[in-house]
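Question thread 4412

I'm putting together a teaching handout and wanted feedback from people who do this every day. The idea is simple: show students a protein as raw sequence, then show them the C-alpha cells that encode its fold, then repeat with a second protein so they can compare. Below is the first pair exactly as I plan to print it.
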Amino acid sequence: MKYYYKTVSVPIVFLDGWLVNLERRCFGWRKAGDHSESYEYDEHSTRNYTEYHDGVEWDVTEHTTERKTGWRNYQDFYRISPFTFNPIFAVFEWLSGIFSFIRRLVMSLAKYLIGFIVVLAVIGMILDPSMTTDALQVVGGVALIYLVAVVLPSVLVALVALLMRKVFGIDKHLAQNMEKNGYDPEW
C-alpha cells in the first residue's frame, strides 16, 4: 500500500479559527501553517440625481462598477492518507465537514450583527451610564449564544472524533499498517 501526505486548506472566519484547528486536530490532521489569498470582485453602485440645463430638469441615473480586492485567510493541514479504513469514522468526518462549513457561513454573517450589537451597547453605556448593566447583559447574552450554538456543538463533534479514534484504534492501526508497508510510523 502506498501512503502519502494529503493537504487541505480551510478558510478562517470571525471567531472560528480555533474551532477549525480543534476539530481538525481531533480528526487526525496536523497544522501546517496559515496563508492568505487575495480575490477580486466587482462592486456595483447606482447614483440618482437631478441636473438643470437651460431651465429643463433632467433625472440622471449613473451606474458605476469598481474593481476591488479582498483577502481571505486559510489554515493549512496535512495528514497521512489513507488515514483509516473505518467507514463510520469517514462518514462522521464527512458530516463534520458539512457542519463546519455551515458554522463558518453563519459566523461570517454573524460578525456584522455581533459587532453592531456590541457597538450599540457601548454607545448606550457612554450616553447613559445607568444602561451599563443592561448593555453588559446584552453582550453577555450574545457571548452565551455563541458558546451554546457554536462552541459547544463544535467541541462535542471534536470529542466524538477523538473518542472514535481511541475506540476504533485508528492511530494504532495506521502505525501498524505503515510499518508493515515499510513506512516510518512517526510522521
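The second pair follows. I'd like the answer to focus on this one:
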Amino acid sequence: MKNKSFDCVKMARDIRDKLYRENQSPSLKEFSDNLIKEAHKSLLWKKINVVK
C-alpha cells in the first residue's frame, strides 16, 4: 500500500471552502465570477497550454 504525502482531494476541498467563506454573501454569479478570477491567477492556470 502506498503512503501518500499529498492529498489532492483535501487540498481542493480546503481551497473551495476558503473561497466560499471569503465570498459567502455574493450571489451565485458573483461567486462564480470570483472563482474564475482566482483560477486565472493560479499557477496551474498559467502553466496550461491551450492548443487550437
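Top answer:
Good format. For the second protein you could add a caption like this: The chain has three helices and no strands. The chain has a mean pLDDT of 79.
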